[in-house]
Automatic annotation (TrEMBL):
The keyword S-adenosyl-L-methionine does not apply. Coiled coil: none annotated. Residues 41-131 form the HD domain. Keywords: Hydrolase. This is Predicted metal-dependent phosphohydrolase, HD superfamily. The keyword Hydrolase applies. It comes from Geodermatophilus poikilotrophus. InterPro entries: HD_domain (IPR006674), HD_phosphohydro (IPR009218). GO terms for molecular function: hydrolase activity. SUPFAM superfamilies: HD-domain/PDEase-like. PANTHER family: HD PHOSPHOHYDROLASE FAMILY PROTEIN-RELATED (PTHR21174:SF0), PTHR21174.
Length: 209
């Protein structure tokens, strides 16, 4: 069973014609050709990490479903991808899972816009930590991630991208905590902050040259 296969999806949304149609649509969305980082590989990575961290969640299945939908709509030219993704989750899951879980999934998807869950939000902590895990990778892996993000924003000039990316990195570094779960925070935070600071320094040098 692959992490993005129908069997994994069916454990959360059941095996019905409607469920199969929705799974196929979600997978197709993640496979859009303009995606370089926010693709099926990222979805699988987040799902895998959510599985590892699920013990901290109060509704692990809602977090898993939120992982499926958190970037289901991803258009680098838009600023409301998370809002549209949350609405996509509401529409796609209607009738497949209980209404209260649908709303929790939508709430969690919206959280990934700022990655700043409340201290008493374990579901949000699991999803956001899994989504930001890439920041704590080895420097070469982080460089590959940053390069892929740049490709996704190929429609922007270097100056435009540098300004926008700098703002994103500054926002991340300003978060009260990059990671909320004690199980990963101590190990991941120093690596992530070092990676973010290195990229930010590089972008600032480029902007001033």
């Amino acid at each position: 069973m692959t992490l993005v296969g129908f069997e994994a999806w069916a454990e959360l949304a059941g095996d019905s014609p409607t469920s199969r149609t929705e799974w196929a649509a979600v997978v197709a969305a993640w496979g859009e050709p303009h995606r370089r980082y926010h693709d099926l590989g990222h979805l699988a990575a987040v799902l895998g990490l959510v599985g590892e961290l699920a013990g901290a969640a109060t509704d692990p299945d809602a977090v898993r479903l939120a992982a499926w939908y958190h970037d289901v709509v991803y258009d680098p030219r838009r600023t409301d991808n998370e809002v549209v993704s949350a609405e996509r989750a509401r529409a796609g899951l209607r009738g497949l899972v209980p209404p209260e879980r649908v709303e929790e999934v939508a709430r969690l998807v919206l959280l990934t816009a700022g990655h700043d869950p409340a201290p008493d939000d374990p579901n949000g902590a699991v999803l956001c930590d899994a989504d930001l895990a890439v920041l704590a990778g080895p420097p070469e892996a982080y460089a590959g991630y940053a390069s892929a993000v740049r490709e996704e924003y190929g429609h922007l000039s270097d100056a435009e991208f540098t300004a926008g990316r700098t703002a994103v990195l500054e926002q991340l570094l300003a978060l009260p905590a990059l990671y909320r779960l004690p199980a990963v925070a101590a190990e991941w935070t120093p690596r992530a902050r070092a990676n973010l600071a290195a990229e930010l320094s590089l972008l600032r040098r480029r902007a001033s040259s």
